[in-house]
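ARCHIVE CARD
SHELF: 3
SLOT: left
DATA:
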Amino acid sequence: MNFLRQKGKKMSKSRRLICLIGLFLLTSCGNINSSHSVNKAPKNIILIIGDGMGPTHISAYRYLTEHKSGSTQTVFDKFKLGTASTFPADNTLVTDSAAAATALATGIKTYNGAIAVDKQQNHLTTLFEIAKQHNKQTGLAVTSDIAHATPASFYSHQQRRKQKNEIANWLVDNQTSKQPIVDVILGGGKFFMKRSDRDLIAELQAKGYSYTDNMAQLAQLTKPALGIFHSIGFPSALDSDTQRLSQMTDTALNLLKNSEQGFVLLVEGSQIDWCGHQNDIACLLAEMADFANAIDTAYQFASQRDDTLIVITADHETGGLALASQGKYLWKVDEVAKISMTTKTMAAKVKQGNDLATLLSQHTPFTYSEQEIAQAQSYSHLATEPFALHITKLINKKSNTGFSTTGHSATDVQVFSYGTGSEHFTGFMDNTDIAKKLIQFVKQ
């Protein structure tokens, strides 16, 4: 019996040794074959921000995708998942886009309204500025104007986000080796770029930038590149198309991909936030579709390489979105999918003389009583956006969509990551941690 026990122990030890060797070989082979090494810093960084995109926005987009295609899978499912807090440097807990973008661009908390300055209004060094110090190229592609809070926080320094002319000036004046620090600039904002006091478009062209104001000519741009396509922001995706951000993302990647030391690209789905402020669910979901298309463009780029990191997050949540309201266990995504015009555009058309009942009949699937139409119409004396909110309330009641605010909320946002270094962006973190990790990668 003792002999058998000893023999069994020897066999058990041998088996354990064989298992350990096998596990070591399997792990080693896995590391050799992995295209994204844990210890490798990415050469290229693509930071994609869904302005105002909370977790419920992503749920709503998933339900819409399932309704349209029959699949619950979305582009977000290709990424690792984390969560981030977004509070500013005060006791309000609710951030604006400027403070949140400053946190994402610098790793430092600041006050609401601040553009890459701290609470004492000292300039904070941004991810783009650090990238240029390390000979990387930079780019931005946004559907807002390029002087808007999120892109502004990566290249400029202002005490207040509303100082848009001064913010835009930084696109020319913030230079390294006598060249502006942003190599590819794509977005709206001609109103702030071509002014009576300065023509920033002409100044950038004098610095060697190719320029277009026509989306159809994106492919003709050469680096450094400037594309300014609208006076302020782009038209809403619901009122135009859901490919505009992906087209700019594709152009930016093609221009930056051969950068010898790599690049940092900022992509923003700017108007998810704008639709959230309007509590317009159909508008919001069209922007989510536009955003998802841009993510897929970035994913197709990164998945063919072993040197690129994608990080997707939001600066904050907008609207306090709920996929149910009025105490009902119901959300009519099938009806929301049939809405074909933003309420802001409807309001503008009514103020131009169009009939509200006709517009609602043509662009929404619901039936409205004369009293409901009259009640919404009674607010037509207001400015376009406040009037639109009353049309939105009517539509949301019909679709059973809930919003708790026309502003931002303190809800944590999700963080998605893919590629080289993506393992550092899982679990819970603060938005400043995202910037600190990206800056660390750039410095390596």
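SLOT: right
DATA:
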Amino acid sequence: MTQENDPIALMQQGNYEAARAGFKAQLEKNPTAVNALHFYGMLSIILNDIADGISYMSLSLSLSPDNSAFISNAIQALELLAHNKHGNANKILSQQLTKATKNHVPSALSVAKFYLKKKQAKDCLDVLAPHTSPSFETLFYKAIAHQLLSQKEVARRAMERALTCKPYHPLYSSKEANDKPRVLLIYALENLDFVPQIGDEIAFSIYGGHFDANKFIDINQVNISRLFVSDSDNFRESVKQLGHYDLIINCIADMEVCANALTLLTQFERFTHETINPPTAVLNTSRVDIYQQLSSLSLQIADTNIFHSNAQFAHYNSGFPALARPLGSSTGIGLVKLEDKESLDQYLSQSNGEILNICPFIDFKSSDGLYRKYRVFVIDGEIYPEHCVAHNHWNVHSSSRMTLMKDNEQLRQQERLFVDDISTVLSPAHQATIKQIYKKLSLDYFGIDFSFTTDGELLIFEANAGMRVNTDYLKDFEYLTTPITKIIDAFKQMINYRITT
């Protein structure tokens, strides 16, 4: 066969009509020639002969479901059908792909990935439904699909199973490995919450219980790997197989929701030394622990207790008004103010047995009638301001700035002065107290939310590693760009220093 009448060559040249005729001639001689079936079907779809295209492509897929090229071409055909708004044909070919891949996992994964990129989560789950073996890829794609469908608990269980199967994940290929420093990031599977990231690849970010180390790392400068902690043989084996790392960063930040993972990490010597935010230190940062460690310093902090059952609340005697919140909550979510014992009893009757933090409310209203919440980050012992949010309600959090501050130049100027120079708010004595907090907590990186009592004392709301460097409001508060950049740069400098010394 010469190149002039070779249908493959004609197809590569873009002569689709002649190529299709060539494949048709091959099928007349051999009706089951699978390559001819497939390419005749593909070219028919390209040439808008949809019925023939679907029929022949479907037959080729059923005869050769493990042919990765056929699967790839069928996916491209789905793209073309969708683009040309052949909805019914698209549905038929999708069904054929699902049938063709039910006994071949690699093909099913290719199709599932395609559907996820289109955010067609239900189609992804239909393709993967026949595949119940506990492989990482299958469970991972199912987890992403369930999360896209807002089936959070099912998604969480699937992701936990996936990352238990495969706890260790280098974020670079062996071909990309070079002389760049190697950095290991550690995460917990305990109470895992995640956000799908759909792009050229299917990925996810951890939400809650951790701090976002990715914000501080230049992936062009280091090779990143991730390790997910679970009480499993796979995790322990992964730890044994870990090679040399120039730096380990423990991203687990909330011991109230990840205590088991942190405790497990303390059993491995390599995670207790030369690690940014050692697990042993993070384990001592519950609200109760923070009160016990800081109450002897020159500051005010509420005496917080954890209550595991409604009966224990009968013995609460730290005074009213009181604040109650679910264990492990943040950003003011679930936080309520209880004025008296009657309010507490009513609240408990609706709590459904939740584990709660409860503490007395300490007033921090400023002389102008507003409530202010300040945040600083402490990185390698140095203090970096991040925000000062003013609000007309005691439950102040980041989004509160949009209520009063967006159009109030005086309040904006107050925040601007603080983030430009902390000494405008924090006296030398206050700064010395924050340095003492750093020594008490033994954390390399953490945030402090604070205000001042009506007597001018430093009032600590929270101090932990889970606080977020918030870039959500830079468009409306552009002056926050510089202090946030300083925080990110300080963390990067800490990384570089730890790697090079």
